[in-house]
Amino acid sequence: MHTAQKIMKVFITRRIPQEGMKILSQAGVCKVSLWDSDEPVPRAELLKGVAGAHGLLCLLSDKIDTEVLDAAGPNLKVISTLSVGFDHMAMDEIKKRGVRVGYTPDVLTDATAELTVALLLATARRLPEGVVEVKNGGWSTWKPLWLCGYGLSGSTVGVIGLGRIGMAIARRLKPFGVKRLLYSGRTAKSYAAEVEGEYVPLDTLVSESDFVVVSCALTPETQGLCNKDFFCKMKNTAVFINTSRGAVVNQEDLYQALSSGQIACAGLDVTTPEPLPTDHPLLTLKNCVVLPHIGSATYSTRGVMAELSANNLLGGLQGTDMPSELKF
Ligand code: NDP
Ligand code: DGY
């Protein structure tokens, strides 16, 4: 006899691209409730929405902690995050409860690497300053030293965290004429040979690089890694770029380093908090370019991320393979 399949409950914490919604609605295995907004779900609504859910599709701005897991209760089988980063989730607690986790590696690597290169060039060559000067009448004539910056040709680039995105950044930067490509992390990578990457201790990377690019995961070890001590070791002419997570940087120390001329300039796609308050001291500095966490923001990338997170969710609900399951 055919047993009717049980419809499972899913909560989605935000509007997501329709590619993902379509997959879920066509699957016919779950009833979706959605925080139907482009703004973050209020905490109380998250706790209410997740109650009794079998699946949760969340974003990097949702803190998935014990309280949320308790609110969800024992039905919860899978959490699918629309991100590759998973520092917003209490992994130990999730593991303890046997909940599977899906995430979105690889599909956003190219977009994020591309944005990192764009931010690096915009910061080092002072593009935002130049645009402002054109508009406000500051462009009086061609001047030999006006708006000069730093170029990649013949430079040393240091990548902190030569993972998927770090390697994609290195691949894109090398053809600009980078002379040495240094990287640091927990282990040397055989694939670094492709970019002639030299595995060096962090101190060496920081003191010898003209461009320091942070692309590691946020972990207890990397939290606050870029602090006073770190910036003091950098060259006065060096450019600092972070597209990983804001908390890898001590922002007070970065402000001091930028305002005192300890380092030349910084480009950040990620901050703490997000959004960065409009009166934050970093935003008063001409030598600091801040973007609103748009590393993976291309239409196609976000569409594929939504598809992948929907398929991850379905795999978790049905107890089958997930296209990108986080093994932890
Ligand atoms: P990967 O897991 O491929 O790479 C992460 C890297 O972090 C690894 O190479 C790892 O090095 C390194 N790492 C871990 N611990 C340390 C440490 N203690 N010191 C130095 N390096 C360390 O992830 P992805 O490349 O796919 O993504 C990286 C991060 O980028 C994400 O976690 C996310 O936070 C961020 N991101 C930001 C985006 C944006 O919009 N700005 C978009 C997408 C991602 P090792 O292997 O040696 O441990
Ligand atoms: C991630 O995926 O971790 C990014 O920060 C957003 O795409």
From TrEMBL:
<feature type="domain" description="D-isomer specific 2-hydroxyacid dehydrogenase NAD-binding">
    <location>
        <begin position="117"/>
        <end position="295"/>
    </location>
</feature>
<protein>
    <recommendedName>
        <fullName>Glyoxylate reductase/hydroxypyruvate reductase</fullName>
    </recommendedName>
</protein>
<dbReference type="InterPro" id="IPR029753">
    <property type="entry name" value="D-isomer_DH_CS"/>
</dbReference>
<dbReference type="GO" id="GO:0030267">
    <property type="term" value="F:glyoxylate reductase (NADPH) activity"/>
</dbReference>
<dbReference type="Pfam" id="PF02826">
    <property type="entry name" value="2-Hacid_dh_C"/>
</dbReference>
<dbReference type="Pfam" id="PF00389">
    <property type="entry name" value="2-Hacid_dh"/>
</dbReference>
<dbReference type="InterPro" id="IPR006139">
    <property type="entry name" value="D-isomer_2_OHA_DH_cat_dom"/>
</dbReference>
<dbReference type="InterPro" id="IPR006140">
    <property type="entry name" value="D-isomer_DH_NAD-bd"/>
</dbReference>
<dbReference type="GO" id="GO:0005829">
    <property type="term" value="C:cytosol"/>
</dbReference>
<dbReference type="InterPro" id="IPR050223">
    <property type="entry name" value="D-isomer_2-hydroxyacid_DH"/>
</dbReference>
<dbReference type="GO" id="GO:0008465">
    <property type="term" value="F:hydroxypyruvate reductase (NADH) activity"/>
</dbReference>
<comment type="similarity">
    <text>Belongs to the D-isomer specific 2-hydroxyacid dehydrogenase family.</text>
</comment>
<feature type="domain" description="D-isomer specific 2-hydroxyacid dehydrogenase catalytic">
    <location>
        <begin position="10"/>
        <end position="325"/>
    </location>
</feature>
<keyword id="KW-0560">Oxidoreductase</keyword>
<dbReference type="GO" id="GO:0051287">
    <property type="term" value="F:NAD binding"/>
</dbReference>
<dbReference type="InterPro" id="IPR036291">
    <property type="entry name" value="NAD(P)-bd_dom_sf"/>
</dbReference>
